[in-house]
Write a structure and sequence with these properties.
The protein is α/β, with parallel strands linked by helices. It has 12 helices and 17 strands. It is globular. It binds threonylcarbamoyladenylate (TXA) and magnesium ion (MG).
């Protein structure tokens, strides 16, 4: 396939003629990457199994990994999901549009390849003007996984999408950098009590305030792959840069001490080392010959989340062979950051004794 067309659209006031054009391509079965508030998605008509098939192919995504169906209005939900529990309706009222995906019973209108053969479907209403206008103009829901090659960090800019999929899809909408930077929280509403399968942009604390019974499916830093049976996308090695990642979890001071010592040892062995740290940690590493990615202040976890995936890509471009990452705690969006770093580390998690907070 030739190079994808790039279309810049105003993220606050999307130009209607551009939205109409992108919707026409989707109606014709083409693949269109578009921004959401979390990460960029690779969209196809959710009712068109042939278009959905092309999404799997473009991403090199295994067929057993189901996609999220994106809607623009509450009224669209009935065409996608059925037997919606009252607790789900409560969550959609509070959190949609926003970074919350619900697993519900699927309708027969949703092709089997969208859900990888499951009888449940993942649905969300994104909080992004371009995404909402596009879905509304299509008149059908859009099936979209994150617009990265399988197992690569999710794209938070159109440039990331071009890097991974520029020669594999039809159109890339450039709506600027995404605001949240990590993917949506996935909650399984077909289980009682509801379980969080993937922490993300909507925090556990916010969900628990509305739905006190909600539980987090096993998310210990030393992952096991049992979760992959519940949600096939949740393999333990995921979202990762090409370099080996080591993730250090525990009391911040001890974590930083160990990371620094590890960096010194690796440098002595001639390795190219990168560190994923907070702005406050910079001075500890500045005297070493390491590539520093300081994500932001430890007091601003939203900014750290927003910058995480771009930093992973920069570490790849810098050509480091090993990345040492610190934990940023597990409060609020910290849990999603911890989850992505754990998966990037693919099991290389160093748990250091002591409390995290
Ligand atoms: O923020 C997001 O969620 C982004 C934007 C584009 O909306 N999308 C995204 O999609 O992250 P994807 O495909 O990269 O991740 C979807 C996750 C996967 O872990 C998948 O296994 C899970 O949702 N999932 C989808 N359908 C499911 C189902 N029926 N049951 C359990 N898990 C499901
Ligand atoms: Mg993904």
């Amino acid at each position: 396939m030739s190079q994808a067309e790039i279309l810049t659209i105003d993220p606050l006031q999307p130009e209607p003629d551009k939205i109409t054009y992108a919707a026409q391509l989707l109606r014709a079965g083409k693949l269109v990457a578009f921004p959401t508030e979390t990460v960029y998605g690779l969209g196809a008509n959710a009712f068109d199994p042939a278009a959905v098939e092309r999404v799997f192919a473009a991403k090199n995504r295994p067929a057993n990994d189901p996609m999220i169906v994106h809607i623009a209005a509450e009224g669209q939900l009935a065409s996608v999901a059925t037997a919606i529990p009252t607790e789900a309706a409560t969550l959609t009222r509070v959190f949609w549009p926003g970074p919350l995906t619900l697993i519900l019973r699927k309708t027969s209108a949703i092709p089997h390849n969208v859900t990888a053969g499951l009888d449940s479907v993942a649905v969300r209403m994104p909080s992004n003007e371009i995404a909402l206008a596009l879905i509304a103009a299509c008149g059908f829901p859009i099936a979209a996984p994150s617009a990265n090659l399988f197992a690569r960090p999710s794209p938070t800019t159109a440039g990331h999408v071009i890097e991974d999929l520029g020669e594999r899809i039809d159109l890339i909408i450039d709506g600027g950098p995404t605001f949240i930077g990590v993917e949506s929280t996935v909650v399984d509403m077909t289980r009682q009590p509801p379980h969080i399968l993937r922490p993300g942009g909507t925090s556990f604390e916010a969900l628990k305030a509305i739905l006190p019974s909600i539980k987090i499916a096993n998310h210990s830093p030393t992952l096991d792959d049992s979760l992959a049976q519940l949600s096939p996308g949740l393999l333990s090695k995921h979202y990762s840069p090409r370099a080996r990642v080591e993730f250090f979890v525990g009391a911040p001071e001890a974590v930083l001490d160990q990371m620094r010592q590890r960096a010194i040892d690796l440098l002595a062995n001639g390795q190219q080392v990168g560190v994923l740290i907070a702005e406050e940690d910079r001075t500890l590493f500045e005297s070493l010959h390491v590539h520093i990615e300081a994500l932001g202040s430890i007091k601003d976890l939203s900014q750290i989340a927003r910058r995480l995936f771009a930093a992973m890509r920069r570490l790849d471009h810098a050509g480091v062979s090993i990345v040492l990452a610190r934990s940023f705690g597990s409060n609020g969006i910290g849990l999603a950051i911890q989850d992505r770093l754990t998966r990037a580390a693919g099991g290389n998690v160093e748990c250091i004794v002591g409390s995290e907070e």
